[in-house]
Every structure is written in structure tokens, then in C-alpha cells.
Amino acid sequence: MRTIAEYKPLAGQQFAVLVVGVGQVGSCWLDQFAPTLPPTARVHSTHNSSTPLTTGTIEQLNDKGQTLLVLDLTASEKVSRCYPEWIRAGANIISANKYAGAADTAFYQEVQQALQENNRQWLYRATVGAGVPIPQLVRECTANNDPVLRVEGNFSGSLTWIFQQYRPGDKLSEWLRKASEAGITEPDPRTDLGGMDVAKKLLIVAREAGWDFDLAEADIQNLVLASSLDEELDAAFDDWRQANYPDATQFCYIGRLVADGQHGVKASAALEPVSADSPYAGLAPDRAYFQVWTADHPAGTITVEGPGAGLEATAGAVHKDILEAIAR
Ligand SMILES: NC(=O)C1=CN([C@@H]2O[C@H](COP(=O)(O)OP(=O)(O)OC[C@H]3O[C@@H](n4cnc5c(N)ncnc54)[C@H](O)[C@@H]3O)[C@@H](O)[C@H]2O)C=CC1
Ligand SMILES: N[C@@H](CC=O)C(=O)O
């Protein structure tokens, strides 16, 4: 555990930041952003699997009158399941972890109820689009009586990074390895390649529009086409490409939410060929591009592009949430 002494001691502190998960995002936030916290906030403690955050610690700090910001920078479902208890003990939560935002409806509602009953905040801008405020845009349109009809974009930072650089003939496994080394895949890259990371992001955004769906019902293309992610994957991916898009020169993994009067929303994601005039064609590997269709903008005229992947963009999004929580 890092000690508070490693951070600038600050007078008149009111916000105690507790960091759960010091991996790539956590380390990046601690190194680059924690030193810039405003004087009213300080890092109280950091926690990993062997020094887990306990509800008792939260209760003690809360009883001392501190406002607590718990950063969940893990990829752990177990940590996300603690949210209701931590909120009831006095914590505000800031997540990069997508588990709670994409949890089953009952648990998601339990978190919302705990927040309401205890007047606490839960912010999670890092969970979708890193530096691109797509959940916020969807929330704002919905709150302002401009119902969202459809959302589309390259929701996966890692698959975008891979496929903006991959060209037919390359080894997919090599690009996947490089993406993992760059820190933009999930701890288990199968989560990205299998589409489940995108499915979770789609659900997080859908909930901002008042929709809900079961992750198992989403139509998500799984690119884990082989049991090992080496030459076996390369061969299986080449077979898929030749069978489906033999002439394509570029691909993008695109996620979609489409309002469906009968069922609320249809969520899907697939690897699609990209033509030269597509907005995705010239996108830099670390950029995200989203389009939102709403009742007031039915032609999809709301577009947002920005830094959609990478540790700095993600840690920066966590930091923005901290500043927002402090300012509220
Ligand atoms: N890497 C990226 O570009 C982005 C990551 N994220 C999300 O941020 C989260 C963290 O990602 P990374 O830092 O890349 O993963 P990571 O695997 O490098 O770090 C996660 C850390 O959490 C720790 N951990 C696991 N269980 C724990 C527990 N019970 N208590 C305390 N710590 C525990 C692990 O030991 C590890 O150090 C993930 O949920 C990921 O989806 C979100 C946006 C972008
Ligand atoms: N693995 C994720 C990282 C951020 O959520 C992605 O590829 O987008």
C-alpha cells in the first residue's frame, strides 16, 4: 500500500480519496493526476487484492466527517458488489470498472437505491469512451426531452487500436499482443476480442437513455475464434475474413443501440468493413467516434470524436469525475 506521505500533505482537507486497484489505470492516476488534486482533497490510501478496502475503514472516515471518494480502478466483479454496502457506510463511488454499470438490473437498482437513500454520488465517465463524454451526452438528451433513437460508435478502445492498424495479411495475434502491452486491453484480452467489454459499454449507455437489456440478449460478434490467441487465432480470423469480406482492406468493430418500440432497445456489435469514405476510415488508432440520433436530430447530426483509449485518457476521465464530485 502506498502511504499518504508520498503525496503532498495538504491543509484543510475535506475529501479523502481511497484508491481500490493500483494496476495500469490506478498507477497512471496516482502518478500523473493525484499530485494535482485540489487542496481540499488528498489520497487517504490505496488498496489491492491483499490489502482490500473494508467497510469499517469507510465508516471510520465517514464518522470523522470526511467526504469519501472511493475510486474503483479494478476489473473486479467482487469489488463492484461492495458498492451498496460502501455507499450505505458513507462512500461516493467513482468507477473505471464496468461491472456495476453493466450489472443485472436488480443489482444496478440496488446501487441506485443506496445512492438515493444516502445522498451519495456515483460517477463513471471512464467506463465508456475514456475522454469522450458519450454517456453524458445521452443522459443530457434524455433529461431534456430529446429522446435518443440510436447510438453508434467504435466503443472498444483496444479493438479500434488494433483494427485501425491491422491490414489483411497481418497477424491479428501480433496486434492483440501489442494492444495488451500498451495497456488498453482488459486484464484478460478475451473480454475485448469476445465483444463482452463492448456489450457492457452499450448497456451502460443504454441505461442513460432509460433503456435496459440483458447482456445475454445483445447481438455481439465474438472474435475469439480459436482456443489460443496465437497462430490458431490468425488462421481462424483469416478464414472468417475470406469467407465474409474477401475484398475489404480495413475493418472497425462498431457497436449500436437502436430504439425498438416493442422491446425498448436492440444492442449489437460487429466487425465491419470500412470504406474509404467512412468516418472510421481515417480515425487515429486511439480516437473514438460516436454518432447519436435523437428525436430532434433524427439524421444523426450529433457527432462526438475524441481520445477514446489509453491509460492517460482513462485516468484523466477518472480525475474529471473526482473534480466534478468535489465541485458538486
Ligand atoms: N486500460 C484502459 O485503457 C482502460 C481501463 N478501464 C477499466 O479500468 C479498470 C482497470 O484497468 P487496468 O488498470 O488496465 O487493469 P489492471 O489489471 O492493470 O489493474 C487492476 C488492478 O486491480 C487490482 N485488484 C483486483 N481485485 C482487487 C480487489 N479485490 N481489491 C483491490 N484491488 C484489486 C488488481 O490486482 C490490479 O492491480 C478495468 O475495469 C478496465 O475495464 C477503462 C477504460 C480504459
Ligand atoms: N478494454 C477496454 C479499455 C477501456 O474500457 C477497451 O478496449 O475499450
From TrEMBL:
InterPro entries: Asp/hSer_DH_NAD-bd, Bifunc_Aspkin/hSer_DH, HDH_cat, HDH_CS, NAD(P)-bd_dom_sf. Residues 133-323 form the Homoserine dehydrogenase catalytic domain. Its cofactor is a metal cation. Pathway: Amino-acid biosynthesis; L-methionine biosynthesis via de novo pathway; L-homoserine from L-aspartate: step 3/3; Amino-acid biosynthesis; L-threonine biosynthesis; L-threonine from L-aspartate: step 3/5. This is homoserine dehydrogenase. It comes from Pseudidiomarina salinarum. SUPFAM superfamilies: Glyceraldehyde-3-phosphate dehydrogenase-like, C-terminal domain, NAD(P)-binding Rossmann-fold domains. GO terms for biological process: homoserine biosynthetic process; methionine biosynthetic process; threonine biosynthetic process. Belongs to the homoserine dehydrogenase family. It is an enzyme of class 1 (oxidoreductase). Gene3D superfamilies: Dihydrodipicolinate Reductase, domain 2 (3.30.360.10), NAD(P)-binding Rossmann-like Domain (3.40.50.720).
